[in-house]
Amino acid sequence: MVAKDSEVVHGYPHLDTVRAAITALHRRLSADGVLSYAPSVLPADVAFADHNDLHLGAQRVARALVQHLKLPEARMIVSFREMDHAASVELTAGPEYFIELNDRFRTHRRDIGAALAHEIMHVLLHRLGLSFPGTRDNEILTDTATTYLGAGWLLLDAFREDGVSSQKLGYLTPEEFGYVLAKRSLAFDEDPRPWFTSPQGYTAYTKGRAQALRDAQRPPLTTAGWAGRHRYAKDRRYARENPGHASAGPHPADESSSPAGSSSPGSSSYAFEHGPDGMRVSFPCPTCNQRIRVPVRGRVRARCGLCRTILECDT
């Protein structure tokens, strides 16, 4: 949680890790497993009014999140105490899990669901055996999984910022939360905008959605814009004329034009490869970020082997 008067970081500093987390979820759960987390947890299921009993209300919200995240055997015991962080969970073999929430939530009950969602996701990832090395990346994985599997819109809605104070839960920036939430909305055909109570959270979602839409407008996809198609043609020509050199398009985070063949293939750039059957181009699936390889021969329809998205390409 970002404390009062602390500056909230904005932008996309963790985007590569976020994309890797989405790929890891698809690999661990399968395409059908990911899609089974529909619909998102609904506002009515996690609503917490000030007149509700603190402990009974927290248990009710935790139970709703446990059910949404398909942890029927997990019983969450929620308590409150003074602590530096927003919340913590004791990861054991179960069947009971102990979650501690910051005493601050005694008077900020509307955000209890957001804090619980993150901690209960730790339980799910623990059971799945899914983790990233290092505390930072593992927490980014947790935020991403919480959002992509339908409970993380609560974390973005807990973001509030004005001239004198700010609050943010989780490790992702508001725009990164918006990006992941938009990725989910596109994959699940779901519109989370009516659920927001935070104007700042809503704005961050719109910014993140614009970034997510750009992922689906990169060459060699047919939805790419003129500038991207022009740059792709230059890089393809360079690759054909210089088969002994690695050739890749610029990373999408860098919209400036770099010399053809001069950039290394980042996680979200296309790259040309030469083989015995001709030249191929590899690029990330805009849904799950798994890299896809197709022959360079004009119009091609590709199917992602991980998330099963059908992609129209002009290679």
What would you say this structure looks like, in words?
This protein is of the alpha+beta class and 315 residues long. It has 2 domains: 15-215, no CATH class; 226-314, no CATH class. It has 9 helices and 11 strands. The strands form 4 sheets. It has a 4-stranded antiparallel sheet, covered by helices on one side. A hairpin with a 2-residue loop joins strand 7 (271-275) and strand 8. It is elongated. The N and C termini lie far apart (45 Å).
Helix share of residues?
25-40%
Parts with pLDDT < 50 across at least 5 consecutive residues: 1-5, 252-266
Radius of gyration: 21 Å
Beta percentage is 15-25%
**What is the total tally of β strands?**
11
| Principal-axes shape call | elongated
What is the domain tally? 2
- N-to-C CA distance: 45 Å
Count up the helices.
9
Quickly give the structural class: alpha+beta
Question: What would the keywords be for this entry?
Answer:
39% helix, alpha+beta, elongated, 315 residues, single chain, 11 strands, 2 domains, four-stranded antiparallel beta sheet
Write the SSE topology:
Elements (H helix, E strand, L loop, with lengths): L14 H21 L7 H4 L7 H15 L6 E7 L5 E4 L5 E7 L9 H17 L6 H14 L4 H5 L2 E2 L4 E2 L6 H15 L10 H17 L10 H16 L5 E2 L22 E5 L2 E7 L6 E5 L3 E5 L6 E5 L1
Parallel strand pairs: 1-3
Antiparallel strand pairs: 2-3, 4-5, 6-7, 7-8, 8-9, 10-11
In short:
The chain has helices at 15-35, 43-46, 54-68, 112-128, 135-148, 153-157, 174-188, 199-215, 226-241, and strands at 75-81, 87-90, 96-102, 160-161, 166-167, 247-248, 271-275, 278-284, 291-295, 299-303, 310-314. Strand 2 (87-90) and strand 3 (96-102) form a beta hairpin.
